[in-house]
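Final report, Chapter 2: Outcomes

The project's central promise was a pipeline that accepts a single protein chain and returns its three-dimensional structure in a standardized token representation, suitable for archiving and comparison. That pipeline is now operational. To close this chapter, we reproduce one record exactly as it appears in the project archive, with the input sequence first and the structure output second.
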Amino acid sequence: MRSKSFGWIMAALLSCAGVGTASAHHSFAAFDTTRQITLTGVVKEFQWTNPHCWLHLSVANGEGQAEEWQLEALSPNVLGRLGWKKNSVKPGDKVTVLVNPTRDGSRGGALISLTDANGNKIGGRT
């Protein structure tokens, strides 16, 4: 009986151990929400993943060389309510995005909205 009680106590403790990390959430503090920039490029990859989706975009710099930008989006659940699907963008698609750039100047940002080559706008953060 004692080992059965110990097992239940351990199971309860272990199930609670992940609660803090699973429910923890980071902010968008790494991004400068006072600035917005527009980028046009070609989709390298779109990751429809929790807790946030990611868009990897190849953008030509001032000298015409391709640079990869990593753009963080909202969760699949929220994006789905805004009209996104996991196949809304595919590698090779030409898109224009509006983003809040990173504060440290690295090639990244928080995705605000995306416009595809046909002019269809898909919302994001407002």
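Archive annotation: Strands lie at 37-47, 54-60, 66-72, 94-101, 108-116, 121-122.
This record, like all others produced under the grant, will remain available to the consortium after the project formally closes.
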